[in-house]
Each structure stands twice: as C-alpha cells, then as structure tokens.
Amino acid sequence: MARKLTAILSADVKGYSRLMGDDEEATIRTLTAYREVISVLIRQHHGRVVDSPGDNLLAEFASAVDAVQCAVDIQQDLRVRNTELPDHRKMEFRIGLNVGDVVVEGEKIYGDGVNIAARLESLAEPGGICVSGTVHDQIENKLTLSYEYLGEQAVKNIAKPVRVWRVQEGHGTAASLSSRGQAPTLTVPEKPSIAVLPFTNMSGDLEQEYFSDGITEDLITDLSKISGLLVISRNSVFLYKGKAVKPEQVSRDLGVRYMLEGSVRKAGNRVRITAQLIEATTGYHLWADRYDRDLQDIFALQDEVTQKIVSVLEVKLTGGERERLGRPPTHDLKAYDCFLRGEVSLWHFTKESYAQARQMFERALELDPQYATAYAALGWTYLVEWALQWSQDSQTLERAFALAQQAIALDEAMSQAHVISGVVYLWQKQHAQAIAEGERAIALAPNSAEGYAWLANILNFAGQPEEARGLAENAMRLNPRYAGPWHLFEIGHASYLLGRYEEASIALKRALTRDPEFWPGHFHLAVNYSECGQEAAAEAEAAEVLRLSPKFSLEAMRQALPYKDQDVLERAIAALRKVGLK
Predict the structure, then answer these.
(1) How many structural domains are present in the chain?
(2) What is the mean pLDDT of residues 403-425?
(3) CA gap 533, 443 in Å, rounded
(4) Does some domain include residue 185?
(5) Contact present, 528 and 540 (Cβ < 8 Å)
(6) What is the end-to-end Cα distance of the chain in Å, rounded?
(7) Residues 114 and 44 in one domain
C-alpha cells in the first residue's frame, strides 16, 4: 500500500436531517450550490476533493496553510450566502482539519489521519473550524487568525487523545483583514449612518413590487448625495427584502446606527407611504409618519421623507446638496413608471434582462426627452453590454458615452453619467479626463459604492494603485454585503501592482468565489502566479481564461488594456506568454 503525509479537510452540514425533513428539494438545491462553491475554493487553494457522500465532503492539500486558509474562506463565503436564506433554511458546515499519514488507494485516502479530521469536524461549531495540534504547529504564525485551545480530546477509535484548537478569524497579526481582500470588522462611524431597508409592497399585487423597490432606491439615491451621512448601498440592503429582521442585527451586519423601513400602497392615482426611522443600535423609534397623496406628488413626498431624516439626524447640508435634493427627475409619471420597470431588470445581469431594461428606458425617453436619469440608465446598459463582452462593436462604447453626455447636458449633477464618461475615457486611454470624471461622480454622490469602485478601476490603470485600493475599501464599507467580485477584484489588482503578490492572490481568489466565470479575475491571477514562479497555478488560470474567452489573444490585450505605464502592460504580457498564452 502506498502512503503519504497530507493535510485533510473534512466537512459536513449541521442539522442536515432536519433540513431534508423540512424541504427535501430546497435542501438538495442549496447543498448542490454550496458544494460547488466549496469545490471551487478547494481547487483555488491547490487542494483536491477526494469524496463527497451525502452532506459530507473530504479534501486533501499538500500544505496545511492552504488547507486552513481554504476552510476560512469557505466559512466566510457561506456566511454571506446564508444571509440570503431564512433562518430555518440556512445551511451551516462544520469543518475539521488534520495533518497525518494516510493510505492511498487510487483516488481515495484512508487511515487515522482521515478519521481524526472527521472527529474534529464533529467538535466544530456550525460555521466553525477545529484543527489538530499537528495543523496548529504548522500555521500558528502564518495566517491572520487566532486560536482557542480546547485541550486534549478523546476521539472515537483513536488510541491517544488529540490536541484540538478552535480557529478564530480576524484577530492575528500577520496582516490586516483588508489586506487579505476581506471586509474589515464593521464599526458604527461617528457621523450618522443609515440603511434604508426595502419598503414593503402593501398593494396586494405582486406586479407592484417594482414600484415599492423604486421608492426604496430613490430614497437611497437621494440620501447618497449627502456628504454628512454614511449610506449603505442598494445591493446590501436588498438582501433583507421580504425578511423580518431586528434593528440590532441590521446594525451589526451593516455597521450603521440608524435604519429606515416602511411600506408602499399604490392604488389608481393615489399612493400611501409609511416610514419610520429607528435607532438600530437600540431599537428605539425616532420618528414615524404616514403620507396619503396623489401619485402626481410622489417626488415631493420622497423629498419630504429625505428632509425629515436630515432634520431628525441633525445633518448639515452643503449649498450644493440643498440645491440637488428635491429636484424632480421628470414631470411625466408614465415616463417614471417605465424607468422603474427598467431599473428592476438592471439587477439580473443577463443579456436578456438588459435588453428589457433598455426598452423601458427608451420608452421613458420617448415620453420625456428631457429625462436625464433615463439617459444615464440607458447609457449604463450599453456600458455593461460592452464591459461583459455581450457586444464586440466599438460603437457600443461610443453610444454609452453619447448618452452619458446627454444626461450631463440636462443635469450636470447626474453622478452615474460621470461614472460612465470616466470609464469610456479610461478605455480611450485618456487618463486625466477619466480621473476627473470619476472624482466628479464621487463629489456628487459621496455614498456611491459604484462610484468608488469605478474610480478605483481607473486609478489602477492610471498607475495609482495605493489610492485605488483605498477607494475599493471605501466601496466595500458602503456595500458590506457585496456578493459580486468587483470590489475584491480591484483590491487584488491594486495589490498586484504594488508587488504584494500573496495579498493579490488571496483577494482575486475570493473574488472568483463570488463569480467563478469572471474571466478578468483568472487573467490577473495567471499574471500574479506567473510572476511569483508558480507556473502550475498560472497555467491552470490561463486555461480558465481560454475556456471563458476562447478568442483571447495577447495582442488584443496589448491593444485594449488601458495601462498608462506601458512597462506594466508588457510585463503582464510576458508573464502570460511564459505560461502558454498567445
């Protein structure tokens, strides 16, 4: 029999039988999705899935450091995904890790090394990690973690007691959480901070969901223009849609002192909105009101709610902020209705949903040719179409720019239009203009996570990665429950440009757990690994680039990537050529 020393990870689901008994189909769907996430992370940390019977999963690694970092990343990723599930459907894994001698038979491994990992898994808390003394000895000073010693534990079918340690995330000294591409522990800032939870649709008609969602987004957009506030982004707060949550939980999850919640009832030409402002840290209700108005007064109503929040929280507005607040985006309610319907489709990120959104925005502009917000939103559909390579036509980018300029001509304070203009300037390699537009966007909407992320992207290509990294971290603070890869990707890109290769690989790998099909993440990981001399890992990432973008070519990248410093570009191309890309 062949034998070897290896690091073993064993995982299973806490309460799996109960979950299956409650809803078998939903449990299988969740398990399948979570197992895919876990498998991707294991591969990214240079491990191998050995077996996955039932709700169990067994994997092995050549490195204890890789195994533990993988376990931490698994638990952090699943923790985020569990926020989207009701409490009784959350699926929590327990993980145990051991380094030991195993018997190898084909693709399988057996022996005490595996048995100990399985026993440690049973000692872990749901969502937690336990490691053996042999693992702890190898990782103690190598990861940003701390460990609680649980003593020597007698485990079934193992002659000698096993030293056991519980992993505690985020308290070590090797590196800061943000340097590892993860959101820092959220603390409530000194200035007023608020989360606007999705308003409940009380119309008795699911078709009206778009309207209540639109009211929520409009309030977030208006509050985001106020520099004296910290406002959580739409992406993070909509994770709570349809869920009963306690204010204290919202405060902990999002790092805010206040929350606004309410409801919308629309019937014919009348609308009723209720709103209440709560001190989330204590659950104390600061203010509540109900508004019954004609639908024609919807914008004045929204402004009244915004102004009341500003007053109660004693926020001082600048002159420009006073002028921008309360300005109705359109006087045509049918155009506004089309805009709200299009806005809902923007959050699905499919080619089909964006085509639907575009039709709605075009209809809104037919009804009101002076609707600046609709021009910006329509321009956004073209920018995303180009960025996600749904279209290879260069005129797609030009169309996005033209629409953004139309929006700015009608309303110079349209932040999203400046974001679009900045991105187009970047890809035209006009770096100074791109930075100016990005900075203008943030000045107009100082709570726009989207604005910070795009300016980070611009600054990375313009040769200012330190500033880019700070902006990406700002975006993460405003969007702390981010699900997509973008914020982490910009931190990884910046870390690579700063020569911090280990931090770059961690951030980029975590970005890919959020979207394994995000090919720029694989592209930059391939560059990063190649420059570190990790050729096998670089070749694997290069293969992913080709799988996701079969027409990829280095010459096309040379022409397209807008690095201001051509030496950076040539270095990246040389790194990719070294691992077989052409």
Answers:
(1) 4
(2) 97
(3) 42
(4) no
(5) no
(6) 43
(7) yes
In whole angstroms, what is the distance from residue 236 CA to residue 66 CA? 30
Does residue 458 sit within a domain?
no
Structure tokens belonging to residue 369: 């040719």
User: Can you give the pLDDT at residue 184?
Assistant: 45
| Strand 258-267 relative to strand 200-201, pairing | parallel
For residue 569, give the CATH number of its domain. Answer: 1.25.40.10
- State the average pLDDT over residues 212-236: 94
With respect to residue 249, please indicate whether it lies within any of the assigned structural domains. Answer: yes
Same domain, 244 and 161: no
| The predicted structure's pLDDT at residue 44 | 83
Shared domain check, 165 and 21: yes
Ramachandran category for residue 9: left, alpha or beta (phi over 0 → left; psi -120 to 50 → alpha): beta
% residues pLDDT > 90 (the chain)? 63
pTM of the model: 0.72
Domain with 419, as residue range(s), is 331-446
Average pLDDT over residues 85-105: 91
* DSSP bridge partners of 264: 201, 273
Residue 379 shares a structural domain with residue 301: no
Q: Categorise residue 102: left if φ over 0, alpha if ψ from -120 to 50, beta otherwise.
A: beta
51 and 108 in contact (C-beta within 8 Å)?
yes
Confidence band, pLDDT 50/70/90 cuts, at residue 168: confident
User: Distance between CA 81 and CA 482 in Å, rounded?
Assistant: 10
pLDDT of residue 27: 92
CB 297 within 8 A of CB 282: no
Calpha distance 152→124 (Å, rounded): 14
Same-domain status, 301 and 411: no
The two tokens of residue 577 are: 């050529």
pLDDT for the residue numbered 144: 64
Residue 241 and residue 353 in one domain: no
Q: What is the pLDDT of residues 200-219, one digit of tens each?
A: 999 877 788 999 999 999 99
- 495, 403: one domain: no
